[in-house]
Amino acid sequence: MGFGEFLGNERIVHALRTMLRRERMPNALLFVGLQGIGKFTLARMLAQAANCEKLRDDFCGACETCKKIARLGDPGPLIEQGLAERGENPDTATVERTPLILETHPDVWAIVPDPVRRKNPVARPMIRMGQLRAVQRAAYFVPQARRRIFILDGAETMRWNDADVCLKILEEPPETASLILLAPRADALLQTIRSRCLTFWFAPITPEKIEQFLRNRSEWSGTERKLAAQLADGSPGAALGLDLAESARLRREVLGLISDSMSGKSYRAIFSATVRLAKEESEPFENVLPLFYSFFADLLELSHSTKNFALRNPDLRRELETLARKISDVWVAQATSNLDRLEGRLRRNVSRQLGLDAVAESLRI
């Protein structure tokens, strides 16, 4: 038990252990990396090590403090419990008055984007003002163990006006508390917040390491583990959560839209496909867009080489090789630029379907 169980990013682990050993724990850290790459896991491990009853630069996993903090590793039941305390249909005042806080040890809190309700959760959960104010008050309490740790998962979901509360904590940091902010991109946070954090960038994990990681954590065959590791795009958590059959269906749907758009199929067929992807998929649209990027990357590489390199979608190699013969670098650059434009506009709540219609129309050859 300890940091040795963490997969990948050994330099970050080494740096954190050095801070603990020298008793120079920062007041604010920012973990940046892919969803599922292990940011929350390492933050939880750091909280255990900062308060372990037996060790200083690691955690034993056996003392009472370590056991309590370890329960944050499964946040689902804690979120359910917190939402149940509000009732089924809380109003705005109740949501702010009863902030969603995951606490299994008095000195360690996890703050996650608040879905508001157990049934019919909001479309875009976010960290709310009530949660930030609760952290602001508690950050200055004297810890029962050695250090108070506040893990803000999904820190990029804070409204910028609400983020001023977080900024106030960082401007007058308590000596015995640390905030650990987790986000997929650093630029999703205010510059004034980023400048006060020690930032760690999590590198993607190699497919070989992810495949090994899956060996004892799944019932997949060797072929399935290899495919999952390649599809995970460097994220062990994404690999664990994959439904391979559903992934294959959705990726074929996306590739079919790209192929039909390139060949100039009727607008009716194209628009039917964009409706399905934008409105009828169980997968959030924000998770569908990266599939387009992965196909564009594969097409670009295949258009320049026939070597048997590792594709992002290896099970669709034959279809991709056929399409790659039709495209140019200019086509890929234009397609990617249009997809970037759509992704940026989603933050301003534009129509997903109309945006995808425009991208599809731009793919005609």
How would you describe the overall organization of this protein?
This protein is an alpha/beta fold. The protein has 2 domains: 201 residues, Rossmann fold; 120 residues, Zinc Finger, Delta Prime, domain 3 (Up-down Bundle). The chain is 51% helix and 8% strand. Strands 2-3-4-5-1-6 form a 6-stranded mixed sheet. α2 packs antiparallel against α3 and α13 crosses α17. The protein starts with 9 loop residues before the first helix and ends with a helix.
State the secondary-structure class: alpha/beta
Number of helices: 17
User: Care to count the β-strands?
Assistant: 6
Q: What's the CATH H-level homologous superfamily of the largest domain?
A: P-loop containing nucleotide triphosphate hydrolases
Widest sheet: strand order?
Answer: 2-3-4-5-1-6
CATH architecture verdict of the largest domain: 3-Layer(aba) Sandwich
Roughly what percent helix? 40-55%
- What is the end-to-end distance? 56 Å
Average pLDDT value? 91
* H/E series: HEHHHHEEHEHEHEHHHHHHHHH
Outline: globular
Kindly report the CATH topology of the largest domain.
Answer: Rossmann fold
